[in-house]
Amino acid sequence: MMTSLGISAFIIFCFFCLSWRMSKSAVTSFYFSAIFSHWTALGDINISTALILLATMLLFACGRTRFNLGRVVAFSLFAFCILGGAAASTVNSPGLGAALGRFGKMALVFLPLFFPVRAEAVEIGAMVKAFVICTLVFSIPCLLFFGADPGFMGTPRISGFFEDANYFALISLICLIYASQYMQNKSWSWLLLAQLICSQAMTMLAITLVYFLILRRREVSKKMLAIFPVIIGLGYVYIIYRVQQTDAIVLESDYQTSFVAMKFNSVFFRFFAQFSAMDIIQNRPSVFWFGYGSGHSVELFGRVLHNTYVQLFFDSGIVVFLGVLLVVGLGSFRFDRQKPVFIILIISSLLFDAFFMFIFPFALVIATSNPEHADL
C-alpha cells in the first residue's frame, strides 16, 4: 500500500513540476495536480481531497477566482441545502462524521460553479501536454507494477498513471475535445486519441465517435443544455424503478469464453445493485426523502452503484438529488464554450461517477478557460 502511494505521489509531483515549468503558474498547476491525484492511489485514502481543498484555498488567496457577494449568497443557499440533506441522512445511518464528510466533498466539487477560476489564470495547454507526457512516460511502469484489467482478447487495458481505465478515457476525451478545438499542434490530439483507444473503454470510444460525428457539428441551445441533467437524471431513475419490477435482465452464461458476454455481465451486475438500491428507496420513505447516507453501497450491495444519479438519490434523498440536478442545469451556461463536454459529463454519469470523482470541476475549469492560452 505504501509503495503504491509513494509511486502515485512521485508521478503527481512530476506532473506538477512539468505543468509548472510549461505554464509558469504554480497555483493552477498545483490545482490540476491535486485533482489528478484523486484518480490515483492517493484518492483511496482521501489525501487527494485534502490536496484539492488546499489548492482551492490557494486559488482564492491568490485572487484567481471570481468572488462577490451574490456568489457567496448563492453558494450559501446551496450549501445549506446539502448540509441539511447530509444531517437528515443520519436518520437512516447514524454517523455525523460521514455525513459531514459527504457534505464537504459535495461543496468542494461544486465550488468552481459558484466561484469560477478566472479565464486568464488558467493555462490548459500546459496541463494537457503534461498529462500526455506523463502518460507516455509512466504507463508501462504503472502497468508492470499495478497490473491492468483484461480487455479485448486478454490484452491489458491501459490506464496511464490512473487506477481506472474508464476515468483515464474520460479525462483523455475531455482533453481531446479541448486540444482539437484550440491547440495548433494536432500531434497532441492524435496522442490523446491513442490513449482513448488503448484504454479499451468501449463506452467512451462510442461517445468519442458521437462527438466527432454529431456533437461537434451541431449547436445545442442553452435552454436544452439547462434541462438536460434533469431529463437524464430523472428519466434514468424512473427507468430503473420500472425495470426493477420486472425480470427483464438475465446474465449471459458464456461470460468466461466471450469478451462481449463478459462486458454485458459487467454492466448487468451494476444494474442489479441499482435495482436493490431502488427497492430500498421504494419501500422505505425515510430513505426516499433523506437518503441512506454516504458510503454504504459496498456494504449493502457488494459494489458502488456506478451511476451518479441513483447513487446520489440513494445516499442523499430526493430533495438533495433534485437540488443538485437543478444547480447543475442552471450552471450549464459556464460550459458555453464547451457544450459537448457538458453533455458528455451528463451522459457518462450514467455509467460511473463523473461528479464526485472531481471530473466535473476539472471539466468546468477547462470550459471557462481562455482559449488564447491553449499553446502556452
UniProtKB/TrEMBL annotation:
This is O-Antigen ligase. The chain crosses the membrane at residues 41-60, 72-91, 124-146, 167-184, 190-212, 224-241, 309-330, 342-367. It comes from the Bacteria. Coiled coil: none annotated. Keywords: Membrane, Transmembrane, Transmembrane helix.
